[in-house]
């Protein structure tokens, strides 16, 4: 089984047990791990189609209290999700607390509202950040 984000298909850069990548201090990182695991089975043509459609490199800074976990969603070059900072300049750097990210991933919260209320901070291209919100919303029922 794998998740399809309206043909967003991404893989992980590492083949190690991704459950080890979940940050125990920030449980919502499991969403990113699950996406990476499930989407790593994508065909090359589907991955390329989504890269062409999205054309963005996102760096997510998930926070809970004093803890932070940084993840990269590369839908610009390679079509992959990995733990850590972007290897090249991110188009949008998003800083978000764990509860807000959980709400976005479950489809219970709108990214624009989170941004307007200061729960989501964006450096870089705000319009690209809206694409990520759409990705999460489309598949909230599949997580």
Automatic annotation (TrEMBL):
Q: Which domain of life is it from?
A: Eukaryota
Record-linked Pfam families: SCP2 (PF02036)
What the entry lists under SUPFAM superfamilies is as follows: SCP-like
Transmembrane annotation, as ranges: none
Q: Which residues form the SCP2 domain?
A: 42-137
- According to UniProt, the name of this protein is SCP2 domain-containing protein
Q: Name one GO cellular component term.
A: cytosol
Q: Which InterPro entries match?
A: SCP2_sterol-bd_dom, SCP2_sterol-bd_dom_sf
């Amino acid at each position: 089984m794998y998740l399809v984000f309206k043909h967003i298909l991404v893989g992980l850069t590492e083949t190690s047990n991704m459950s080890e990548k979940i940050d125990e201090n920030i449980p919502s990182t499991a969403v990113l791990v699950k996406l990476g695991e499930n989407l790593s089975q994508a065909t090359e043509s589907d991955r390329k189609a989504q890269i062409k459609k999205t054309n963005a490199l996102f760096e997510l800074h998930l926070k809970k209290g004093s803890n932070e976990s940084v993840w990269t969603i590369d839908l610009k070059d390679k079509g992959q999700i990995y733990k850590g900072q972007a290897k090249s300049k991110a188009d949008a750097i998003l800083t978000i607390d764990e509860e807000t990210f959980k709400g976005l991933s479950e489809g219970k919260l709108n990214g624009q509202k989170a941004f307007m209320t200061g729960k989501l901070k964006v450096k870089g291209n705000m319009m690209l950040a809206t694409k990520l919100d759409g990705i999460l919303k489309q598949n909230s029922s599949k997580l």
